């Protein structure tokens, strides 16, 4: 059996000491049991359990459609690619979004005009 040196927060050490005292065991023994229990849980099996979970439960979606909707959902009127995203996902935008874009562009034009006047 190998020995290890591990840094554990003080609160966890206090908990470990209390747990060991309750069980009449050493801290090392409780730690060994914890590692064994953790290994028994399967380690990386959570990845296998989660991969394809939606499909196993009959939830199907087109990943490209999902990505398109998420991209549109996160696009804001001040984003440089607003028109591009709006063109590929018109169903995800409404008149309010277009008004906000027009307002943003008007502010940009006004700021550019002010800058032009100040530098002339």
What does this structure look like?
The chain is an all-alpha fold and 120 residues long. It has helices at residues 10-23, 27-40, 45-50, 53-56, 63-74, 82-88, 95-119. It is elongated, with a radius of gyration of 29 Å.
Could you give a short description of this structure?
By secondary structure, the chain is mostly helical. Helix content is 68%, strand content 0%.
Helix/strand layout:
Layout lengths: L9 H14 L3 H14 L4 H6 L2 H4 L6 H12 L7 H7 L6 H25 L1
Helix pairs in contact: 1-2
Q: Which structural class fits the helix and strand makeup?
A: mainly alpha
**What's the overall geometry?**
elongated
Low-confidence segments, ≥5 residues, pLDDT <50?
none
- How many alpha or pi helices? 7
Largest sheet: none
Features:
120 residues, 0% strand, mainly alpha, single chain
């Amino acid at each position: 059996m190998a020995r290890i040196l591990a840094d554990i927060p003080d609160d966890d050490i206090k908990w470990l000491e209390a747990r060991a005292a309750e069980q009449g065991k050493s801290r090392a023994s409780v730690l060994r049991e914890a590692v064994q229990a953790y290994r028994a849980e399967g380690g990386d099996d959570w990845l296998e359990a989660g991969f394809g979970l939606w499909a196993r439960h009959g939830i199907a979606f087109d990943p490209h459609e999902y990505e398109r909707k998420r991209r549109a959902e996160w696009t804001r009127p001040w984003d440089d690619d607003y028109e591009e995203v709006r063109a590929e996902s018109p169903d995800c935008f409404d008149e309010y979004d277009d008004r906000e874009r027009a307002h943003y562009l008007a502010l940009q034009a006004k700021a550019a005009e002010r800058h032009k006047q100040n530098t002339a």
